[in-house]
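Bumping my old thread because nobody answered last time. Still need a sequence for this structure:
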């Protein structure tokens, strides 16, 4: 007789496995009576659904079990510390291994869940290093056994769905470790609703009269040199992009190809519908990739795709981004009404976002496009923008200072913005208010407020997008989230160092500064934009140049380059033959850049960007302190100092002995452009 060791063990017969599973299940029930989970795992829409009978017990389903964080209070204290710009531990984030050791569910808790699922007849298909999720598949009968439920077919608004009739239960020795279960109903799903319409090619050729990346570079005063090089932006959603669409879009607007290493990641089976290109469904990813790239053309972009739009497929996709940790910035424009999703589902995702923050990731989410009544005509907000570990992005209606007309199609600069009536915003009924939501007009209360920030979103004028071989004009807060992600990629790429995690504390500390355009006009239905924070446009929209100046990393592990305000063309050098010429010409009322400078392929920002930067320097150019900014004196002194000469020519002092000393003037110039 041959003895078989472990390496040669024959597979156990199926009847034996089933019998053992039954024994384990029965013994567990006896040892640990079932216990309902603390948070609801079923959609609130179940109350409006009509039961039409038992679901086929042999139909295949999947379930996602969320495990609770360990030491959640300590985790929040840690996040409050490392995300506070005033803390000595600011931006000293954890590695994923450190997070797992301190805050992830224990290995024993995960093993207990896995054993219970297997004993119930389910096959575990996914586990993660942070142990926050366990994904399993099997027939309806096995799912019913695992969670102590009956699953029925139901009708909701005339459509056929399925739902468990009662909340799930788990053995008492497992239930305390579980935050919730997804996959017990399909009454709600994730959506991306970009408002898109096709436009004739002639309109695109004339660049009129909708927004493109070059227009937004000018409108929000972005700095071309902070292009996100060295950073990676992850896009969290569904469906694939077409490389040919990206190529056409980039060619039209003078953008480089996507950087090497960009690509797409399917988080389900390779054949999953959500990982394929869809003529209608891929509009969202087209605008996401095109406007992340348009904002930060040097950043790699990875498209993480959920297997489908099912709620159960999103937490595994979110968690894959966290454990892969490809970069510091994530954008998502997919969401669902808070009131339609179970609280367990939202907390399950929020645990993942907390892990993301702890390792330095910043997440930006569109706040929704149905105004204050995002939930079927009822006051409500969108998930995941309602998460306290995610920055919600609302929307505005932009007006350029000039241009965007048939005779002058390019946007010439920032004019004004008003709240867009579709901007999702309001008070969460699920999440408590995070500590950073305070001051600057934040109303009293204890509920999470949405959004945090805003950006242009109105379909009029809308943004050019190329998808499925056609030009579209698209609007919605879906446009704002990827651009905010692009701004943060630029910030990281330009300064290096660790991530920012949730930048809420930093952003709210900038309220009332020139880093934000405060939106004070317009409403989203029930709420009105006001001075300071409001639940229509949050803190406002970004003035990128001012934002970058004020949002510099200050960790003990990162040495940051000084900001030279005299470098108005943003090439990293304050040049007498370039920057000082541009400043002088602007002060004289001329276009800053002589037309001859733009020949020969030189890459120089638009005149409007340079004018805006000179304007921001303002009276600081009065380096002799006489109350007047003059080309014949102040600009001369600046140029001479940059050339290594004494700022004031000796002959000047003969005619005016009261001129400040060279040491004083040199110090003022050095303050504008530190060495």
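Sorry it took so long. Here it is:
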């Amino acid at each position: 007789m041959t003895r078989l060791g472990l390496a040669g063990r024959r597979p156990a017969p199926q009847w034996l496995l089933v019998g053992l599973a039954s024994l384990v299940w029965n013994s567990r029930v006896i040892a640990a009576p079932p216990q309902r989970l603390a948070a609801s795992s079923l959609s609130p829409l179940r109350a409006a659904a009509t039961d039409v009978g038992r679901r086929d017990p042999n139909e295949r389903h999947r379930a996602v079990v969320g495990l609770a964080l360990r030491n959640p209070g300590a985790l929040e204290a840690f996040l409050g510390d490392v995300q506070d710009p005033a803390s000595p531990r600011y931006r000293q984030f954890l590695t994923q291994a450190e997070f797992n050791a301190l805050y992830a569910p224990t290995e024993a808790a995960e093993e207990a869940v896995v054993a219970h699922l297997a004993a119930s007849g389910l096959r575990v298909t996914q586990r993660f290093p942070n142990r926050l999720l366990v994904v399993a598949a099997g027939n309806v009968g096995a799912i019913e056994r695992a969670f102590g439920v009956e699953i029925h077919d139901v009708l909701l608004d005339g459509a056929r769905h399925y739902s468990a009739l009662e909340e799930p239960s788990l053995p008492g020795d497992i239930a305390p470790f579980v935050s919730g279960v997804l996959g017990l109903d399909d009454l709600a799903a994730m959506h991306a609703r970009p408002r898109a319409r096709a436009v004739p090619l002639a309109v695109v050729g004339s660049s009129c009269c909708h927004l493109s990346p070059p227009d937004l570079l000018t409108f929000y005063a972005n700095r071309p040199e902070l292009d996100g090089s060295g950073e990676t932006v992850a896009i969290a959603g569904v469906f694939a992009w077409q490389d040919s669409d990206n190529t056409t879009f980039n060619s039209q607007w003078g953008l480089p190809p996507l950087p090497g290493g960009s690509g797409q990641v399917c988080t389900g089976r390779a054949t999953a519908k959500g990982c394929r290109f869809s003529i209608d469904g891929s509009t969202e990813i087209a605008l996401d990739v095109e406007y992340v790239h348009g904002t930060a053309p040097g950043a790699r972009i990875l498209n993480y795709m959920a297997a489908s739009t099912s709620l159960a497929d999103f937490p595994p996709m979110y968690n894959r981004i966290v454990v892969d940790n490809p970069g510091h910035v994530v954008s998502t424009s997919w969401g669902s009404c808070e009131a339609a999703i179970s609280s367990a589902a939202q907390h399950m995702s929020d645990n993942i976002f907390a892990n993301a923050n702890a390792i330095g990731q910043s997440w930006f989410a569109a706040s929704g496009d149905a105004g204050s009544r995002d939930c079927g005509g009822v006051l409500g907000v969108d998930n995941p923008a309602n998460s306290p570990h995610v920055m919600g992005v609302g929307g505005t209606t932009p007006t350029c200072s000039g241009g965007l007309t048939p005779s002058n199609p390019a946007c010439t600069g920032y004019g004004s913005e008003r709240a867009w009536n579709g901007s999702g915003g309001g008070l969460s009924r699920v999440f408590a208010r995070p500590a950073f939501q305070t001051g600057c007009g934040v109303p009293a209360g204890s509920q999470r407020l949405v959004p945090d920030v805003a950006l242009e979103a109105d379909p009029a004028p809308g943004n050019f997008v190329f998808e499925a071989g056609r030009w579209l004009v698209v609007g919605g807060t879906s446009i704002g989230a990827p651009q905010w992600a692009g701004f943060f990629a630029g910030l990281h790429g330009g300064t290096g160092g660790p991530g920012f995690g949730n930048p809420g504390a930093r952003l709210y500390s900038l309220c009332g500064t020139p880093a934000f355009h405060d939106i004070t006009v317009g409403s989203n239905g029930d709420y009105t934009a006001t001075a300071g924070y409001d639940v229509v446009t949050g803190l406002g929209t970004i003035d990128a140049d001012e934002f970058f100046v004020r949002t510099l990393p200050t960790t003990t592990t990162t040495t940051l380059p000084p900001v030279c305000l005299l470098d108005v063309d943003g090439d990293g050098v304050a040049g007498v033959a370039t920057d000082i010429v541009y400043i002088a010409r602007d002060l004289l009322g001329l276009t800053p850049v002589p037309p001859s400078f733009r020949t020969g392929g030189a890459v120089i920002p638009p005149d409007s960007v340079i004018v805006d930067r000179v304007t921001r320097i303002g009276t600081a150019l009065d380096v002799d302190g006489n109350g007047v900014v003059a080309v014949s004196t102040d600009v001369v002194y600046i140029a001479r100092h940059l050339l290594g000469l004494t700022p004031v020519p000796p002959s000047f002092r003969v005619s005016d002995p009261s001129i400040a000393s060279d040491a004083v003037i040199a110090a003022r110039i050095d303050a504008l452009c530190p060495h």
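The CA atoms of residues 85 and 506 lie 6 Å apart. Let me know if any region looks off to you.
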